[in-house]
Amino acid sequence: MSLDLGTAFDILLDSGVEVVGGDGERVLIGRLGSRALRYKIVVTKRVEDSERVLSDLEVAAQRGDLLLYLVERASDALWQAAETGDVAFVAVRDRLCSVAGRTWPEQVEEPSRPNFRLCALARVLLSTSTPLFQGAPRSRAQLRGASLGSSLARTIGVSQPHVSVLLRQLPIGSVEQVAGGWEVSNFDRLWDWHKSVYTGPGGIRIAWRSDRKRTSQLNDLRKVAGDAAVALNHGRKAARILLSGFEAVPAPLRGTDHTPVVGLGEQPLVDFRGPVTIFSRYITSSLTEMRYTRCPQIDATVQLVQPADPTVYSTAAAWGNEGRTDPLVTAWELTHGAQANQSQAAGLREWARAYTHHS
Question: Are 121 and 137 in contact (CB under 8 A)?
Answer without folding.
Answer: no
